[in-house]
Specification:
The chain is mainly β and 135 residues long. Helix content is 7%, strand content 39%. Strands 1-8-3-6 form a four-stranded antiparallel beta sheet, with no helix packed on it. Strands 2-7-4-5 form a four-stranded antiparallel beta sheet. The chain is globular, with a radius of gyration of 16 Å.
Length: 135
């Protein structure tokens, strides 16, 4: 039993329920230029939730890997219009990065957990790259 880690000494991971039960640490970034090529927004900790804002007249692709936004595994955030900025739903997903493409003026809001972003790294890369439906 020498390899046994006591629960009070264990690091938090993706399935650490209390990390998702509390309010998230605020994260906001704006003025992202993802017009010509896909751009990654990296979070220092795993998200509890996130929302993407689009401030241009072009639709914005949002994915969870570069392969996703370059391929067919992405969400669309509507263009801005007379009703205001285009914005996504608030997605309650645990991710360490999102990829954006198609807009020269966009931003991301998120609530972060206490789980280090490195906890989502797999043999296929960071976040959920290589997963079905992600790209």
């Amino acid at each position: 039993m020498s390899n046994f880690i006591k629960s009070y000494q264990a690091n938090v991971g993706l399935n650490h329920t209390p990390a998702y039960q509390v309010s998230g640490q605020p994260f906001a970034t704006a003025s992202i230029n993802a017009g010509a090529t896909a751009v990654s927004v990296d979070f220092p900790y795993v998200t509890r939730w996130f929302q993407v804002i689009n401030a241009t007249a072009n639709p914005l692709k949002v994915g969870f890997s570069k392969a996703g936004v370059d391929g067919n595994n992405y969400l669309i955030v509507d263009a801005s219009g007379s009703a205001g900025y285009g914005k996504s739903e608030v997605y309650e997903l645990k991710v360490s990065e999102v990829w954006l493409s198609g807009s020269t003026q966009c931003g991301v809001l998120a609530g972060l957990t206490s789980i280090p972003a490195s906890r989502t790294t797999t043999t296929d890369g960071t976040s959920w790259s290589g997963s079905a439906g992600v790209g």
